[in-house]
Amino acid sequence: MSFGDGERKTNDATVELLDKGKKSNTEINKTLTTIYDAVRKGADSFLMAEYRICAIFIVIFDVIIIVLVAHVGTDDPSANASGFDWARGGFSGLSFAVGALCSIFTGYLSMKVAVFSNVRTAVAAYEEGAAGWRGAFSTAMNAGGVTGFLLCATALLVLFFMCTMYSYHYGIDNYMDRKRLFESIAGFGLGGSAIAMFGRVGGGIFTKAADVGSDLAGKVVAGIPEDDPRNPGVIADNVGDNVGDVAGMGSDLFGSFAEASCAAMIVGSTSFSDWDGLLFPLAISALGIFCGIVTHFFATDIWPVKSENDVLRALKVQLGVSTILVTAALWPMITLFLPENFMVDGDPNKGSTLHVFFSISVGLWGGCLIGFVTEYFTSYDYRPTQEVAESTETGAATNIIYGIALGYKSAVIPILILAADVYVSFSMLGMYGVGLCALGMLCTLSSCLTIDVYGPICDNGGGFAEMAEMHPRTREKTDALDAAGNTTAAIGKGFAIGSAALVSLALLGAFVTRVSSADPKHQPFCNGSVSLLQPITFAMLICGGMIPYWFSALTMKSVGKAAMDMVKEVARQFREIPGLLEGTPGHGEPQHGECIRIATEASLKEMILPGALVILSPLLVGTFLGVNALVGFLSGSLCSGVQVCFFLSLSLDVCLNVLICVYIEIFKCVLTCLIRLPCLCQTLEAHGITPRNMSKREC
């Protein structure tokens, strides 16, 4: 199957889609093309609407950044008579705008690649035997690889270009020049993270509302299969996977990647005065890209997938091999870029190449361990998920209890790994070590994002196969690929959470250091020191810990409201469109556009309040209560947020794989009943019980 330009016409002669007696190739190809166009247009319309809101935010917030950063006081040698350095403010505002636009760019292209690959995965999965497994897996993996390498390369190239351009204005000859240069560059990470927040919240509300709404109205109420073409909400569900799990995740990890690079360069500006040392964080990221390219061929060519048992192994190989390759190449690169000893925290001999190697390595291997730990707790191959599945035997109550308990338990080991990473890296190189540790964890981002995007593509490929009524073996392959994708999605989320925590800690440490060294005469909100034992700091520590729960409550309620609207719309169409639910020949077509419109409007409306909470709360606390209160507020939010993130993200993937366990057990039971049915009938007849005289209770 191939799509051309314009209307994406299908070449009917390229693939045999159905057995004889089923739909013709022309009908199937036409259906696939129609589904593809509907998903593509729905995803485009949502992202365009979301990005229009983001554009307004970028303009308004950019003006605020320019004014606030430009106000440096009359004592600053670069300020004018009014106390403003408009060059510094302008460069910071430009960095913010460029970071935001790059985040939009990577998110949008990630969505386009995913949508483009959904239908191809379904077609590849139709092939029988090993060819079908290899084709479908490689299609999804290659699409994920495009997303991963695009994101890393975009951030790396743009950051290098901006550093080079800004250096012509600031220079790097003395510490103050380097400090102003990289503080201006820091706006790049802020812009990427701001758009990532909107992409994650808006896209997340869309995808979960469409998923919950279509499943409730279709599977639970109407009793029709998942992704049944009669369900008006299935197209919105497929759109949601692309805009939330792909575009949203791409923007999210772009923000973490940009912030980690900016944080390490800001802190490193105190230790190095040459370009090799100043841009060393970018060299780490470049090394990860090259190692990721080599690693990618292990899954698609060296050890290709030939059966269901090979899928999860191939995905885990991506994580392990990329980590080993980066570790092997790390030491030569460190000795090439950095001197044997350098200054850290004012001590000219505290920093060394060996300390740099260990700081990066603990982050690199800590991320790998977090990945394998999350895989253990969320994969249906291991006991924790199987226990949750077994708890369904006694009802929903015990299942919920087991699921919540496993979610909390799964956060313990990743938190301990993060704590060990922070301790080792901070002990060796201070905040610069923490920044390098975060970069080490993100060094294999291209490979991690590849296996993370792979899951939604396989999921949607199965949806395409179901809606087009392709041969059942197609859906069997895509479901098996998606089952492994649920686990790898947890791995990707673990990387995102861990790296975000380390980056936030590095930025918080840099902020505290800057506040402590500020002159209270020129910075009225600073008193020269920050202490946790001050009353306002201690009080705001508790308030900050509450913010992740408030944010989660807002987003979860938003999903519930949007899902209710979706259920009502699907029920209305089942009720008002003759023959739709019954599937009678010639029935009216479901109105997919209405469901997409409802999910779009709800998500764009409901993302405003959670976004305002995250962006405005630190500004309000710092403005009205001072820097000490802000430090406590941010510290509490960081500590609480990491725990909540691990619990919620891993619990979700556990639930998805519990469904797979339950379905497997049901399938085994059905097979057992079919095998034992003749013996069962003979036993019943021997006791005088036949289907005709069996009561309802006996049946």
Give the distance, in angstroms, between the N- and C-terminal Cα atoms.
Answer: 48 Å
Shape: globular
Record the strand order, biggest sheet. 1-2
Instruction: Report mean pLDDT, rounded to a whole number.
Output: 80
State the secondary-structure class. mainly alpha
Please mark out the parts with pLDDT under 50 across 5 or more consecutive residues, or reply none.
1-21, 659-699
The count of domains is 1
The tally of beta strands, per DSSP, is: 2
Radius of gyration: 27 Å
The secondary-structure element order is HHHHHHHHHEEHHHHHHHHHH
Largest sheet: 2 strands, antiparallel
Tally of helical runs: 19
Portion of residues in beta strands equals under 5%
Describe this structure in words.
By secondary structure, this protein is an all-alpha fold. The chain has one domain (12-516, 531-686). It has helices spanning 25-70, 86-126, 129-170, 175-185, 187-222, 234-268, 275-278, 280-302, 311-337, 353-378, 383-390, 396-410, 412-442, 445-467, 472-517, 535-576, 592-606, 608-625, 627-686, and strands spanning 341-344, 347-352. A two-stranded antiparallel ribbon has the order 1-2. It is globular and about 80 Å long.
What would you say about this model in short?
The protein is mainly alpha-helical and 699 residues long. It has one domain (12-516, 531-686).
Key terms:
699 residues; mainly alpha; two-stranded antiparallel sheet; 19 helices; globular; disordered N terminus; disordered C terminus
